[in-house]
Amino acid sequence: MKSSDRYRVKLKELPAHQRPREKLIKYGPDVLKTPELMAIILNTGYRGETVLELSHRIIKEYGSKAIIQEKNVARLMETLGIPSVKACQIVACFELGRRFFQEEPGKMPTLRNPEDVYRYLEDMRKLKKEQFRGLYLNTRNKIIHDEIISIGTLTANLVHPREVFQPAIEYLAAGLIIAHNHPSGDPNPSDEDLKVTRQMQEVGKTMAIDLLDHIIIGDDKYVSLRDRGLMRA
Length: 233
Fold this sequence. Notes:
five-stranded mixed sheet, alpha+beta, about 230 residues, single chain, 2 domains, Cytidine Deaminase, domain 2
């Protein structure tokens, strides 16, 4: 037996009062941590991971805000290495939450400046893969939709304008902010970052949908291309 295996405890081996489902029944959902709630949804582990290990990995690798907004089952399967059943469980779970609660106007954050964007997307700084997000805003700068557009190294070839602006049309957005993280921790923009930004700006002008900013998130810091004067007027 590997030494690391001695510290891996299967769910059924935990004392009853520590198991997520039993805790939920006895104490209610408020006492459960996010991975414990995820474990209840997934029910079982996968390929050598216990359900709690799998739940912790999913939240850590994908980011809590990102996975709430994810609707693409195939992307979840590929990025996290999970089967279709578990990917469908995750998407269906959060879709239910969206339908019941997200339509409340007061729940939509308002993004007044780059600092607001960074605080909203702060969990992206810990992601080990680059994630490209689109934040779609109404005329009052409230978020009306948040979408993961791509996962992987950001290039103009990877990010197609259609994928960026289609949600803007669908949700009748007045403007949008794009953002991505640098797993290296250095948020300074690369030449490719600038190329992607300019490409999106040109498309936005054609469609009369303002690209308000491009935020790059590093380790405990960020860069706003708008503030840096790196976006065309």
